[in-house]
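Entry for the shared binder. Reason: the reviewer on the internal report wants the predicted structure included alongside the sequence.
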Amino acid sequence: MKRALTILLSNPLSVVGLTLVTFVVLTALLADFISPYPEHAGAVVDFLNANKPPSAEYWLGTDVVGRDQLSRIFYAYRVSLGLGVVVLAIAVPIGVTVGLVAGYLGGWADYVLMRITDVFLSIPPLVLALAIMGLLEPTLLNGMIAVTAMWWPWYARLVYNITRAQKVEGYVLAAEVIGAGKLHIIFREILPNCMPSIITKMTLDFGFVILIAASLSFLGLGVQAPTPDLGSMVSEGTRYLPDSWWLTVFPGIAILIAVFGFNLIGDVLREVLDPDL
């Protein structure tokens, strides 16, 4: 912990990343209390204040039906972070388990599991998500399913490569000699040595999950109105460029803040957890 804090405080970029991520998380958690107009996160219209530019009353302006942009961005962060947590909570265990089993057992398990993984990896992630969403109703739940389906193979491939290298190490051979079961060796011996790389990739991927989810919403296949979502807010704002520039610029900056923050944190974790890199 002392070494981690030293690295963290000595790296200005890590401080910036922590600041950005803390801002995103706190605004999402406290949206009900800090939003100037929390009711604007729902199906509310106020045509008297529609399409107003940034001002002292509406810091980031209002949309075409008079809803406060700042309040909707705060609630959109809540949706984006919830999506990221659920997707990684499902994709990581699936991918890690597939990688561990295929890497340690080898043989037919390796061939079958990794060929399935290769099939998913051969399809561009966004194309796969679009194909799945094209078959399903565009809802938040189906969006999670689409993103999860494209994310687990990356963890399977990562853990597979680490497991292949670790299974010939002395601690694994010693566990086999004393009669430890395969499940014990996979999940109690090899998995802990994969965790630094898994945690680093999860942190980096959190921002990319938000970006992919925003891309789906931008195309009309993600979160649907009136639920606030950064991608759909950018998409709607493009219709009114360049006059109503705030409708697109501020949600776009919100996406940039989230993705950039998580990427900076991921780089720091890589340095802390994998000091040999």
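Summary line for the report: The chain has eleven helices and no strands.
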